[in-house]
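Okay, is this right?
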Amino acid sequence: MKKGFIVVLCVLLFATALAGCNKGAATPDEATVSSENVPAEDIETFAIKTAYADLAYPKQWENDVKVDIDETNGYVVSFSADGVKLFDLQFNCGSGDVMGTLVRDSENVILRAAFAKLDENDSNYKKHVEMQGGLDVILSHLAKDYNFAEGEENYVNTSEVYEIKTDVVSLYYPKQWENKVKVDVTDNGVYFSYKDVKLFDILFGTAEGAYLLGTYDGKDVSIVSYDLQQGDLSDNDFTTLRAMQESIDVIISNLEKDGNFRPSSK
């Protein structure tokens, strides 16, 4: 999406430059600084504060851009100008193009962008295209000022885990799920669920349908994984549910680092 948008902007600016050749060169006072001519990180910016990060947007548009934050269905930051929608930034919600992942201690946040289609006949069309291009400035500063993986979609923060103690072994699960996933510890195993949905079980022993991971101090450790159904869940909620289940990989990875664990040869 970004690359396609930049191509459109280049074509537009080139056509404008050709028209300028016929009318005479613009004076310095008339010239407008374009994000295409200046590296994103060198453009003067102002801060837009959100719950997740301060967004650095080109200062040249500070008096033109209108920013609204909607927390009705997720967290959406909307950019508009002259009554025209420019683009939305969607934090862990929406269906826009993935711009990257903000890695945070409590949870990872997926940043998406949804661009509005602009009217080429609008007298402010060129300005609005350049204002949409301000997203590049936002992304550049996120990468510089935060732990932001541009272009990547990663729901699970594997660097921050918490300990689940049992009589057999300590398991380590992503901290971002600590207050969301229900964990029931028994003598026979550990059971993970979200609301009424079963995610997976870690069993101390074997059972029908269970997959043997290995042994810990001679005790079998197995896993039972459940098929997830989207049902009435939104796409975002279902994606989160799958990420919770796939986080079993974090448990397994930490088990394999423990010298007392012996992986199954199966």
Notes: The chain has a mean pLDDT of 86.
